[in-house]
Amino acid sequence: MNVSTLPSVELRDIQPLDAQRMRVDADGSWALLGGKCENCGKLAHPFHRGCSRCGGTERLVELEPIGEVRSSTTVHVTRPDVLLPVPYQVALVQLREGPVVSVPSLRSEVFHLGETVLLAPVLVDTLTGPRAIVQAVPLSED
């Protein structure tokens, strides 16, 4: 699989908008974060301290950032603290490992149900400066 027009993002010295959803390391690498229940094994995104299935304790894990679009919509008004250019797409993506993630895409293409996407970092301007978020990027089969 090849990423169709995957944007190159320099993350060195950039903080994530939500540290429960992604981690950015000092070298600029990043990871999609989730939780795995130590009792029943359920994976979740974002990370929570308690499992929604059994109430057990979750431990922080890295998730594979590839999944399939289950639903999508177009957003015309955004949160006041994140200055995303509108309109933009939001998709519910079921990761290959199971959790469902809600992610935006700053691309103009509309998502298609069942489409395979890669979750990749993108920078957004906020009232406190640039922050990293995860966006969905379509994959093309080769």
Structure, described:
By secondary structure, this protein is an all-beta fold. The protein has one domain (about 10-140). Helices cover about 0% and strands about 50% of the residues. It contains no helices and 10 strands. The strands form 2 sheets. The chain has a 6-stranded antiparallel β-sheet with strand order 1-10-9-6-7-8, with no helix packed on it. It is globular, with a radius of gyration of 15 Å. The chain starts with a strand and ends with a strand. Residues about 1-5 have low confidence and may be disordered.
Blueprint of the fold:
Blueprint: E1 2-3, E2 22-24, E3 30-37, E4 43-44, E5 58-63, E6 66-75, E7 88-95, E8 100-105, E9 116-126, E10 129-140
Antiparallel strand pairs: 1-10, 2-3, 3-4, 3-5, 6-7, 6-9, 7-8, 9-10
